[in-house]
């Protein structure tokens, strides 16, 4: 059935070359764990992406119940976590997945570093990778405030105070992040906007660049 | 004997339905992918449809007014219901038009117009009818639709206990 559906579309739109261009590429022997088991280190980038997809999906579902408002935020998180079926699992996926993304990204970075894959001609991809790393840290920082409990409140207070210690422009950064003088209603809404719209948008653009470059340049050679 | 066997195989060549390497790989990889996607996505889908599967709240009775205050002329009475909406708990105020008919039966009509949901009023135009201010829908004292509206006014379930009128969930009009 799927085959005939695919063929029906393919006859009209000739979609085969499109996905073949994306999907058909050789995996060199030195990155294939079936040949050398130690090549599993090359999986960390893909695992980072896999967990990122889970983060995006679970985050989309969480916003069905969450409200970024100082009166209701904690109550809505409490409700979705304890009253909604699988709430603990979906929020758990997002909560633990956030840590796991950082772990996988760190391992991926180590692999790239120790195989020297960042060297010419792939320096730009290293730089984009670092940008992705900082976007992920930003997602972690802004997401931490959203449950609006004590831990969230004080972590944000400390984090913004660190940002305020930047010479000269620090106070402006602090006021921008707070949306005022305190961690309050305006901080919560702007952290929500940054966490849900701005940073994911930037992340997807950077990931696209990251993947385009690696397809264009190919995986670096064996050690 | 071996000769005989040989002849047999020569007669009907072995036709085992072998799975090709490609088929095997696409089944196993496809199955694994489906399993992993399902593991990730199914909890989220169940999470999203939870309101559909949640146990519905039972309709409760609210004490509204003394039975003796009800007349054959419709009167509007306000009453509060307790409403739990996810994490938001409130006591919104509703109103009902409560009347006694010729047989002393007490009934309560919902003030929501069945045309487009505006709030109707009794006798605002002096015709002894319910009138809707939005598009001129009109209803009789029993809630029967006379103009514009496609259905009669909804009715609240009503019970009288110890001299008080209690109002329950909304149902379709049972009087017309």
Automatic annotation (TrEMBL), chain A:
Residues 5-223 form the Cytochrome b/b6 N-terminal region profile domain. InterPro entries: Cyt_b/b6_N, Cytb/b6-like_sf, Cytochrome_b_N_euk/bac, Di-haem_cyt_TM. GO terms for cellular component: plasma membrane. It is a multi-pass membrane protein. Its cofactor is heme b; heme c. NCBIfam families: cytb_ExtP, PRK03735.1. The main subunits of the menaquinol:cytochrome c complex are a Rieske-type iron-sulfur protein (QcrA), a cytochrome b (QcrB) and a cytochrome c (QcrC). This is Menaquinol:cytochrome c reductase cytochrome b subunit. It comes from Paenibacillus catalpae. The lineage of its organism: Bacteria, Bacillati, Bacillota, Bacilli, Bacillales.
């Amino acid at each position: 059935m799927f085959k005939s559906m695919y063929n029906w579309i393919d006859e009209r739109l000739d979609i085969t070359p499109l996905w073949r261009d994306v999907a058909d590429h050789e995996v060199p022997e030195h990155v294939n764990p079936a040949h050398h088991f130690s090549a599993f280190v090359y999986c960390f980038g893909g695992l980072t992406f896999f967990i990122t997809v889970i983060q995006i999906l679970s985050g989309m579902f969480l916003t069905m119940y969450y409200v970024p408002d100082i009166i209701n935020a904690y109550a809505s998180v409490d409700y979705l976590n304890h009253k909604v079926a699988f709430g603990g699992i979906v929020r758990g996926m997002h909560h633990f997945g956030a840590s796991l993304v950082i772990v996988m990204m760190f391992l991926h970075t180590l692999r790239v570093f120790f195989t020297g894959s960042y060297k010419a001609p792939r320096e730009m991809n290293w730089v984009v990778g670092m940008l992705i790393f900082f976007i992920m840290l930003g997602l972690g920082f802004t997401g931490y405030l959203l449950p609006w409990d004590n831990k969230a409140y004080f972590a944000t207070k400390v984090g913004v105070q660190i940002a305020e210690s930047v010479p000269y422009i620090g106070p402006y950064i602090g006021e921008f992040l707070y949306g005022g003088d305190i961690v309050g209603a305006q901080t919560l809404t702007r952290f929500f906007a940054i966490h849900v719209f701005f940073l994911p948008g930037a992340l997807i653009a950077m990931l696209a660049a990251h993947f385009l470059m690696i397809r264009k340049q190919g995986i670096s050679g064996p050690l | 004997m071996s000769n005989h066997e040989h002849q047999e195989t020569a007669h009907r060549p072995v036709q085992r339905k072998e799975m090709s390497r490609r088929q095997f790989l696409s089944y196993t990889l496809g199955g694994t992918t489906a399993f992993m996607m399902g593991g990730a996505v199914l909890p989220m889908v169940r999470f999203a449809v939870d309101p559909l599967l949640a146990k519905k709240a039972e309709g409760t009775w609210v004490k509204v007014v003394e039975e003796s205050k009800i007349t054959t002329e419709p009167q509007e009475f306000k009453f509060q219901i307790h409403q739990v909406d996810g994490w938001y708990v409130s006591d919104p105020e509703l109103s009902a038009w409560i009347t006694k008919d010729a047989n002393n039966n007490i009934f309560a009509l919902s003030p929501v117009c069945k045309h487009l949901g505006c709030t109707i009023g009794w006798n605002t135009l002096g015709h002894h009818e319910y009138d809707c201010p939005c598009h001129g829908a009109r209803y009789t004292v029993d809630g029967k639709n006379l103009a514009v509206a496609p259905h009669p006014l909804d009715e609240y379930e009503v019970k009288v206990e110890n001299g008080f009128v209690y109002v329950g969930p909304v149902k379709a009009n049972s009087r017309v």
